[in-house]
Design a protein that fits this description.
The complex is a heterodimer of chains A (199) and B (122).
Chain A (H helix, E strand, L loop, with lengths): L2 H9 L3 H23 L2 H18 L9 H18 L3 H4 L15 H11 L3 H12 L4 H8 L3 H19 L33
Helix pairs in contact in A: 1-2, 2-3, 2-4, 2-7, 3-4, 4-8, 7-9, 8-9
Chain B lengths: L2 H7 L9 H13 L1 H22 L7 H10 L2 E9 L3 E9 L6 E7 L2 E8 L5
Antiparallel strand pairs in B: 1-2, 2-3, 3-4
Classes of the chains: A mainly alpha (199), B alpha+beta (122).
Protein backbone atom coordinates (compact mmCIF):
# COMPACT_ATOMS: atom_id res chain seq x y z
CA UNK A 1 0.00 0.00 0.00
CA UNK A 2 1.43 3.41 -0.89
CA UNK A 3 1.64 6.30 1.56
CA UNK A 4 -1.23 8.29 0.07
CA UNK A 5 -3.52 5.27 0.31
CA UNK A 6 -2.47 4.71 3.91
CA UNK A 7 -3.18 8.36 4.69
CA UNK A 8 -6.61 8.02 3.05
CA UNK A 9 -7.37 5.19 5.50
CA UNK A 10 -6.19 7.38 8.36
CA UNK A 11 -8.56 10.08 7.09
CA UNK A 12 -11.42 7.56 7.35
CA UNK A 13 -10.59 7.16 11.05
CA UNK A 14 -8.79 3.80 10.80
CA UNK A 15 -6.61 3.75 13.92
CA UNK A 16 -4.73 0.62 12.79
CA UNK A 17 -3.71 2.47 9.61
CA UNK A 18 -2.65 5.38 11.79
CA UNK A 19 -0.41 3.09 13.84
CA UNK A 20 1.18 1.91 10.61
CA UNK A 21 1.61 5.50 9.47
CA UNK A 22 3.20 6.34 12.82
CA UNK A 23 5.69 3.46 12.49
CA UNK A 24 6.59 4.72 9.03
CA UNK A 25 6.93 8.41 9.80
CA UNK A 26 7.54 8.99 13.50
CA UNK A 27 11.25 8.01 13.43
CA UNK A 28 11.82 10.19 10.34
CA UNK A 29 10.02 13.14 11.87
CA UNK A 30 12.03 12.63 15.07
CA UNK A 31 15.35 12.84 13.19
CA UNK A 32 14.21 15.97 11.40
CA UNK A 33 12.88 17.54 14.60
CA UNK A 34 16.17 16.86 16.37
CA UNK A 35 17.98 18.95 13.79
CA UNK A 36 15.57 21.82 14.42
CA UNK A 37 15.07 21.81 18.19
CA UNK A 38 18.31 20.00 19.16
CA UNK A 39 16.84 18.42 22.25
CA UNK A 40 15.55 14.86 22.48
CA UNK A 41 12.55 15.69 24.65
CA UNK A 42 11.47 18.66 22.57
CA UNK A 43 11.91 16.57 19.41
CA UNK A 44 9.64 13.92 20.91
CA UNK A 45 7.07 16.57 21.57
CA UNK A 46 7.31 17.68 17.94
CA UNK A 47 6.71 14.07 16.85
CA UNK A 48 3.74 13.79 19.18
CA UNK A 49 2.09 17.01 18.02
CA UNK A 50 2.86 16.30 14.35
CA UNK A 51 1.28 12.84 14.49
CA UNK A 52 -1.78 14.17 16.28
CA UNK A 53 -2.06 16.88 13.60
CA UNK A 54 -1.80 14.16 10.92
CA UNK A 55 -4.60 12.18 12.59
CA UNK A 56 -6.83 15.23 12.83
CA UNK A 57 -5.89 16.76 9.50
CA UNK A 58 -5.64 13.71 7.23
CA UNK A 59 -9.02 14.53 5.71
CA UNK A 60 -7.62 17.86 4.54
CA UNK A 61 -4.82 16.24 2.53
CA UNK A 62 -5.74 16.71 -1.12
CA UNK A 63 -2.73 15.00 -2.69
CA UNK A 64 -1.39 18.20 -4.24
CA UNK A 65 1.98 17.46 -2.64
CA UNK A 66 3.86 14.34 -1.61
CA UNK A 67 2.77 12.86 1.73
CA UNK A 68 6.31 13.37 3.02
CA UNK A 69 6.26 17.07 2.05
CA UNK A 70 2.99 17.50 3.90
CA UNK A 71 4.18 15.68 7.04
CA UNK A 72 7.55 17.45 7.23
CA UNK A 73 5.80 20.76 6.68
CA UNK A 74 3.59 20.07 9.69
CA UNK A 75 6.63 18.97 11.70
CA UNK A 76 8.42 22.21 10.87
CA UNK A 77 5.48 24.28 12.07
CA UNK A 78 5.23 22.22 15.25
CA UNK A 79 8.97 22.63 15.89
CA UNK A 80 8.56 26.37 15.52
CA UNK A 81 5.69 26.39 18.03
CA UNK A 82 7.63 24.25 20.50
CA UNK A 83 10.65 26.55 20.24
CA UNK A 84 8.50 29.65 20.59
CA UNK A 85 7.16 28.59 23.97
CA UNK A 86 10.43 27.11 25.21
CA UNK A 87 12.68 29.37 27.28
CA UNK A 88 15.71 30.53 25.24
CA UNK A 89 18.18 28.70 27.43
CA UNK A 90 16.66 25.32 26.62
CA UNK A 91 17.05 25.56 22.87
CA UNK A 92 19.92 27.96 22.21
CA UNK A 93 23.17 27.11 23.90
CA UNK A 94 23.36 23.38 23.36
CA UNK A 95 26.31 22.31 21.31
CA UNK A 96 24.91 18.84 20.79
CA UNK A 97 21.67 16.95 21.06
CA UNK A 98 20.85 15.68 24.54
CA UNK A 99 21.33 11.93 24.27
CA UNK A 100 19.83 9.55 26.79
CA UNK A 101 22.11 6.62 26.08
CA UNK A 102 25.10 8.08 24.32
CA UNK A 103 27.53 5.30 25.19
CA UNK A 104 29.77 3.77 22.53
CA UNK A 105 29.46 6.41 19.85
CA UNK A 106 31.83 6.03 16.96
CA UNK A 107 34.25 8.92 16.84
CA UNK A 108 33.58 9.76 13.22
CA UNK A 109 29.81 9.85 13.67
CA UNK A 110 30.30 12.09 16.66
CA UNK A 111 32.50 14.40 14.61
CA UNK A 112 29.90 14.61 11.83
CA UNK A 113 27.11 15.26 14.33
CA UNK A 114 29.15 18.07 15.88
CA UNK A 115 29.88 19.52 12.46
CA UNK A 116 26.16 19.48 11.66
CA UNK A 117 25.37 21.38 14.85
CA UNK A 118 27.82 24.08 13.76
CA UNK A 119 25.93 24.73 10.54
CA UNK A 120 23.40 27.56 10.52
CA UNK A 121 20.01 25.90 11.17
CA UNK A 122 18.63 26.87 7.76
CA UNK A 123 21.50 25.03 6.07
CA UNK A 124 21.44 22.09 8.47
CA UNK A 125 17.83 21.28 7.74
CA UNK A 126 18.43 21.25 3.98
CA UNK A 127 21.30 18.79 4.45
CA UNK A 128 19.18 16.56 6.68
CA UNK A 129 16.11 16.66 4.43
CA UNK A 130 18.22 15.86 1.37
CA UNK A 131 20.85 13.44 2.66
CA UNK A 132 18.95 11.70 5.44
CA UNK A 133 15.30 11.99 4.45
CA UNK A 134 16.03 11.64 0.72
CA UNK A 135 13.73 14.50 -0.33
CA UNK A 136 14.08 16.27 -3.66
CA UNK A 137 15.02 19.95 -3.78
CA UNK A 138 11.50 20.70 -5.00
CA UNK A 139 9.94 18.98 -1.96
CA UNK A 140 12.36 20.76 0.37
CA UNK A 141 11.49 24.11 -1.21
CA UNK A 142 7.79 23.37 -0.61
CA UNK A 143 8.40 22.41 3.03
CA UNK A 144 10.54 25.48 3.75
CA UNK A 145 8.40 27.82 1.68
CA UNK A 146 11.41 29.15 -0.25
CA UNK A 147 12.36 29.14 -3.95
CA UNK A 148 14.13 26.05 -5.27
CA UNK A 149 17.22 28.15 -5.99
CA UNK A 150 17.44 29.03 -2.29
CA UNK A 151 17.47 25.33 -1.38
CA UNK A 152 20.32 24.70 -3.83
CA UNK A 153 22.23 27.69 -2.55
CA UNK A 154 21.82 26.63 1.10
CA UNK A 155 23.04 23.17 0.17
CA UNK A 156 26.06 24.66 -1.60
CA UNK A 157 27.06 26.71 1.45
CA UNK A 158 26.36 23.82 3.83
CA UNK A 159 28.58 21.48 1.84
CA UNK A 160 31.34 24.06 1.75
CA UNK A 161 31.14 24.54 5.52
CA UNK A 162 30.94 20.82 6.23
CA UNK A 163 33.97 20.18 4.06
CA UNK A 164 35.86 22.73 6.10
CA UNK A 165 34.55 21.47 9.44
CA UNK A 166 35.33 17.85 8.61
CA UNK A 167 38.75 18.46 7.14
CA UNK A 168 41.62 17.06 9.21
CA UNK A 169 43.12 20.57 9.39
CA UNK A 170 40.01 22.07 10.91
CA UNK A 171 40.75 24.18 13.97
CA UNK A 172 44.34 24.83 12.95
CA UNK A 173 44.01 27.53 10.30
CA UNK A 174 42.63 30.97 11.22
CA UNK A 175 40.02 30.70 8.44
CA UNK A 176 38.47 27.63 9.98
CA UNK A 177 37.93 29.44 13.23
CA UNK A 178 35.47 31.87 11.68
CA UNK A 179 32.30 31.94 13.70
CA UNK A 180 29.25 30.45 12.08
CA UNK A 181 26.23 32.68 12.26
CA UNK A 182 23.55 31.15 14.51
CA UNK A 183 20.80 33.65 15.19
CA UNK A 184 17.17 32.63 15.00
CA UNK A 185 16.46 28.91 15.60
CA UNK A 186 15.52 28.67 11.98
CA UNK A 187 14.75 31.59 9.78
CA UNK A 188 11.47 31.86 7.90
CA UNK A 189 9.71 29.34 10.11
CA UNK A 190 6.71 31.63 10.19
CA UNK A 191 6.50 31.52 6.42
CA UNK A 192 6.59 27.75 6.31
CA UNK A 193 4.45 26.45 3.49
CA UNK A 194 3.19 22.88 3.49
CA UNK A 195 2.14 22.91 -0.12
CA UNK A 196 -1.38 24.10 0.63
CA UNK A 197 -2.27 20.81 2.26
CA UNK A 198 -1.83 21.82 5.89
CA UNK A 199 -4.25 20.32 8.40
CA UNK B 1 24.98 22.73 -18.74
CA UNK B 2 28.12 24.08 -17.10
CA UNK B 3 29.85 22.75 -13.98
CA UNK B 4 28.16 25.33 -11.74
CA UNK B 5 24.64 24.31 -12.73
CA UNK B 6 25.52 20.63 -12.56
CA UNK B 7 27.10 21.16 -9.12
CA UNK B 8 23.79 22.54 -7.82
CA UNK B 9 21.99 19.37 -8.92
CA UNK B 10 24.62 16.84 -7.81
CA UNK B 11 23.38 16.48 -4.19
CA UNK B 12 20.07 15.17 -5.60
CA UNK B 13 21.53 12.99 -8.34
CA UNK B 14 20.26 10.48 -9.44
CA UNK B 15 17.00 9.81 -7.53
CA UNK B 16 15.93 13.32 -6.54
CA UNK B 17 15.95 14.78 -10.05
CA UNK B 18 13.60 14.62 -13.01
CA UNK B 19 14.51 12.13 -15.75
CA UNK B 20 15.65 15.01 -17.92
CA UNK B 21 17.87 16.54 -15.22
CA UNK B 22 19.33 13.13 -14.38
CA UNK B 23 20.21 12.52 -18.02
CA UNK B 24 21.89 15.93 -18.27
CA UNK B 25 23.93 15.30 -15.13
CA UNK B 26 24.91 11.80 -16.28
CA UNK B 27 26.06 13.14 -19.63
CA UNK B 28 28.08 15.92 -18.00
CA UNK B 29 29.67 13.53 -15.49
CA UNK B 30 30.90 11.27 -18.29
CA UNK B 31 33.14 14.04 -19.60
CA UNK B 32 34.05 16.07 -16.48
CA UNK B 33 36.60 14.80 -13.99
CA UNK B 34 36.11 17.75 -11.62
CA UNK B 35 32.37 17.04 -11.30
CA UNK B 36 33.02 13.31 -10.91
CA UNK B 37 35.27 14.16 -7.98
CA UNK B 38 32.65 16.52 -6.55
CA UNK B 39 30.01 13.82 -6.86
CA UNK B 40 32.25 11.34 -5.02
CA UNK B 41 32.63 13.92 -2.22
CA UNK B 42 28.88 14.37 -2.03
CA UNK B 43 28.26 10.64 -1.89
CA UNK B 44 30.78 10.29 0.92
CA UNK B 45 29.17 13.17 2.80
CA UNK B 46 25.70 11.68 2.32
CA UNK B 47 26.95 8.40 3.84
CA UNK B 48 28.58 10.18 6.78
CA UNK B 49 25.49 12.29 7.53
CA UNK B 50 23.22 9.27 7.22
CA UNK B 51 25.31 7.18 9.62
CA UNK B 52 25.76 10.03 12.09
CA UNK B 53 22.04 10.74 12.30
CA UNK B 54 20.99 7.10 12.33
CA UNK B 55 23.21 6.41 15.33
CA UNK B 56 21.75 9.29 17.36
CA UNK B 57 19.12 8.95 20.07
CA UNK B 58 16.11 6.80 19.23
CA UNK B 59 12.47 7.76 19.54
CA UNK B 60 11.14 6.28 22.78
CA UNK B 61 8.02 4.05 22.69
CA UNK B 62 6.31 6.24 25.29
CA UNK B 63 5.71 8.83 22.58
CA UNK B 64 3.34 6.47 20.81
CA UNK B 65 1.47 5.93 24.07
CA UNK B 66 0.91 9.66 24.39
CA UNK B 67 -0.19 9.92 20.76
CA UNK B 68 -2.50 6.91 21.11
CA UNK B 69 -4.16 8.42 24.16
CA UNK B 70 -4.93 11.61 22.29
CA UNK B 71 -6.00 10.00 18.99
CA UNK B 72 -7.52 6.64 19.85
CA UNK B 73 -11.23 6.23 20.36
CA UNK B 74 -13.59 8.68 21.87
CA UNK B 75 -12.16 11.38 24.09
CA UNK B 76 -14.06 11.52 27.35
CA UNK B 77 -12.46 14.68 28.48
CA UNK B 78 -9.35 16.71 29.11
CA UNK B 79 -8.68 18.78 32.17
CA UNK B 80 -5.97 21.44 32.01
CA UNK B 81 -4.86 23.60 34.88
CA UNK B 82 -2.18 26.29 34.81
CA UNK B 83 -0.31 27.33 31.66
CA UNK B 84 2.04 25.76 29.13
CA UNK B 85 4.94 26.92 31.30
CA UNK B 86 3.68 25.42 34.53
CA UNK B 87 0.55 23.34 34.61
CA UNK B 88 -1.16 20.00 34.78
CA UNK B 89 -3.25 18.01 32.31
CA UNK B 90 -5.43 14.89 32.58
CA UNK B 91 -6.78 13.23 29.39
CA UNK B 92 -9.26 10.35 29.33
CA UNK B 93 -10.60 8.42 26.33
CA UNK B 94 -12.39 5.18 25.44
CA UNK B 95 -11.13 2.84 22.72
CA UNK B 96 -12.84 -0.54 22.45
CA UNK B 97 -12.42 -2.15 25.84
CA UNK B 98 -9.47 0.01 26.85
CA UNK B 99 -9.45 3.29 28.68
CA UNK B 100 -6.42 5.31 27.57
CA UNK B 101 -5.29 7.71 30.28
CA UNK B 102 -2.61 10.38 30.23
CA UNK B 103 -1.57 12.56 33.13
CA UNK B 104 1.18 15.07 32.54
CA UNK B 105 2.82 18.17 33.98
CA UNK B 106 3.94 21.19 32.00
CA UNK B 107 7.21 22.44 33.35
CA UNK B 108 8.99 25.38 31.67
CA UNK B 109 7.34 24.56 28.35
CA UNK B 110 8.14 20.83 28.45
CA UNK B 111 5.54 18.10 28.84
CA UNK B 112 6.49 15.72 31.63
CA UNK B 113 4.27 12.60 31.56
CA UNK B 114 3.48 11.28 35.01
CA UNK B 115 1.18 8.43 34.10
CA UNK B 116 0.20 7.03 30.71
CA UNK B 117 -1.75 4.01 29.61
CA UNK B 118 -2.55 3.50 25.92
CA UNK B 119 -3.67 -0.12 25.69
CA UNK B 120 -1.85 -0.73 22.38
CA UNK B 121 1.57 -0.84 20.70
CA UNK B 122 2.47 0.99 17.48
Amino acid sequence: MDEAELLAQVARGDHQAFQQFYRLYAPRVFRYALTLVRDQFLAEEVVQETMIAVWRGAKGFRGRSQVSTWVFGIARNQAWQVLRRTPQNLSEPEEEVVVLDGVGMVEEEERVRKALTKLPPIEREVVVLAFYQGLTYRDIAAILGVPEGTVKSRMYHARKRLRELLSPDHGRSPASQSKVEEKAPFRQARESNVGGDGP
Amino acid sequence: MNCERIGALLPWYPHGLTAEESAQVAEHLRGCLACQEEFAHIQALRGLVGRALASGPALRPEVWERVAVRTGGLRLGRLRLGSGMLGFSLSLAVRGKTLPILIEFFLFGRRVPIFEYAGGEP
